[in-house]
Amino acid sequence: MSLRLPLSPAVRRWTLPVLVAALICYWSIVAPPPSIVFATPPGADAITSATVASGLDLSWLDRRHGLAYASLALALRRALADRGTSPWRTGLLILGITVGYGTLLEIGQLFRPGRVASLADAASNAVGAGIALVLSGSE
């Protein structure tokens, strides 16, 4: 008869961030990411026209990158929730980890045939992580 031991709290907290980071690495370096179709709401053309007319061009923003790194930031936020540090410090740590990880993967793409490293993708990673942290309450 075997004795089943529960996972330690640290293992349970860090499983999701490690899994999300591994998926991001796989889709960034090994295989192309799955395509995601974003539904265009009615009136989106007017929003796009107003955005371009205001001088704010967000055409460089890759929503897949933003979504992936928002997921990583939220998983890290959950894993680091009980550190006892201020929300500002935790948020900055998470932002630093996600931006650093995204930058390393962009550099890794330089060495993969068929992959392209892009500053716009790195910026999309940071924007996605930052928006997720702001909306989730990390200050």
First and last CA, distance: 49 Å
Rg result = 18 Å
Structural class: mainly alpha
Number of DSSP strands? 0
The dominant shape is globular
Chart the SSEs and their pairings.
Layout: H1 9-30, H2 44-53, H3 63-79, H4 87-109, H5 119-136
Helix pairs in contact: 1-3, 1-4, 3-4, 3-5, 4-5
Describe the structure.
The chain has helices at 9-30, 44-53, 63-79, 87-109, 119-136. It has 139 residues and is mainly α. The protein is globular. The mean pLDDT is 82. The chain has a domain at 61-139. α1 packs antiparallel against α3, α3 packs across α4 (87-109) and α3 (63-79) crosses α5 (119-136). Helix content is 65%, strand content 0%.
What is shown here, in short?
This protein is mostly helical and 139 residues long. It has a domain at 61-139.
Which features characterize this protein?
single chain; 139 residues; globular
